[in-house]
Design goal:
40% of the residues lie in helices and 11% in strands. It has 15 helices and ten strands. The protein has a six-stranded mixed beta sheet. A two-stranded antiparallel ribbon has the order 3-4. A hairpin with a 5-residue loop joins β3 and β4. The termini are far apart.
Length: 351
């Protein structure tokens, strides 16, 4: 009789650097500290470590924190998260690691999943982990990031990028989007949605950074596209024409399309596809509907159409996705495509 392997939570180690932002340091603990399995066991274990032996680490606020683990903890990680720091020194200014930071990162085992929040991406870049890969960071630093690391394909429009074993996010709150995405990738939308509800944040934010760059707070006197989006979400199973969405806001198609892109960061068509993919994911995980029924209810019309869209967005077929997340089995860091890279919401600001 085959004995089931002993349960072991996925270990996330957060690297606390001097000058860190307390808010960003807390994001992995809040998001990964919530998910539990059906038996009430925590699916993740979260540790914080420093590049030095246990002790104080400066923050960018008027207090320090005491970190209980040294860099050796990185050797035990299944996932390493590097939040932003305002004191990266030569990492930010010259694109090179300090000896202390290089020695700490050397503890990370090959194959460990790496993730960076905001300017934490500079650390992964300086260590060579982003060479030849797509990546993002806070929009205000994107041009500098690209100049400093020309070998990286920087995309300043998205909230996060998932390139398989290396993930990067835009600034500050985009770290929440990134961590929720990793939970969704590991354990499915139902688990991620429950974490989002308990954290009182949306499980999936529309668009990317573009909507925040020029107008962080939309003028309340200007018409928005909120009504049209709510209207569309209520009838994803139906054919939805662009002119029908524009009519909900009493706008011309041209004005509506421009306003929609300004507010959401993607075109109405791209947004609709994203929502239908999310709807299909939910149905595949939580119902016994056939693939054909899921395709119709999600608004793709045919199983073949849904298969093409899920393959493009997630890198897997509907059947493979259901097999992974209905059973809780599969790759512990996500169901991947043929090239080994998970494409689940890889670039939220893209279609």
């Amino acid at each position: 009789m085959t004995r089931e392997p002993a349960f072991r939570p996925h270990r996330v180690v957060v690297l606390a650097l001097d000058g860190l932002l307390p808010f960003e340091l807390g994001i992995p603990h809040r998001i990964f500290g919530r998910p539990k399995d059906a038996e009430g066991r925590h699916l993740y274990e979260v540790l914080t470590c420093s590049v030095r032996p246990p002790g104080p680490v400066e923050t960018e606020a008027d207090f320090t924190i005491h970190v209980a683990h040294g860099p050796e903890a990185l050797a035990t990680a299944d996932t390493v998260v590097v939040p932003a720091s305002y004191k990266l020194g030569p990492v930010f200014e010259q694109g090179v690691l300090t000896e202390e930071l290089a020695a700490a990162l050397a503890h990370i085992r090959p194959g460990t999943r790496l993730a960076a929040i905001c300017t934490g991406g500079y650390v992964l870049a300086a260590a060579g982990h982003l060479d030849g890969r797509p990546a993002t960071t806070h929009w205000a630093d994107a041009e500098h990031f690209q100049r400093m690391f020309p070998q990286i394909k920087v995309d300043a429009d998205v909230l996060f990028i998932d390139d398989g074993d290396v993930l990067t996010s835009a600034g500050v709150a985009a770290g929440i989007d990134l961590c929720l995405h990793m939970v969704r990738r590991d354990h499915g939308t139902a688990v991620a949605n429950e974490v989002a509800r308990r954290t009182v944040v949306p499980p999936h934010r529309d668009g990317g950074q573009a909507q925040y760059i020029h107008r962080p707070v939309p003028d309340p006197q200007l018409a928005t596209t909120t009504t049209a989006r709510a209207w569309a979400l209520g009838r994803l199973h139906e054919p939805i024409q662009l002119r029908h969405m524009a009519e909900q806001e009493s706008m011309s198609v041209r004005t509506f399309t421009r306003r929609f892109r300004e507010e959401v960061g993607v075109s109405p068509g791209q947004w609709l596809t994203q929502q239908r993919v999310e709807r299909a994911r939910h149905l595949l995980e939580s119902t016994d509907l056939t693939i054909e029924q899921v395709a119709r209810d999600a608004g793709f019309g045919t199983a073949q159409s849904m298969r093409q869209h899920l393959q493009a967005a997630l890198g897997v077929t509907p059947t493979a996705y259901r097999r992974t997340f209905r059973t809780g089995a599969g790759d512990p860091i996500g169901d991947r495509g043929a090239d080994g890279r998970d494409r689940a919401a890889a670039s939220v600001g893209q279609g």
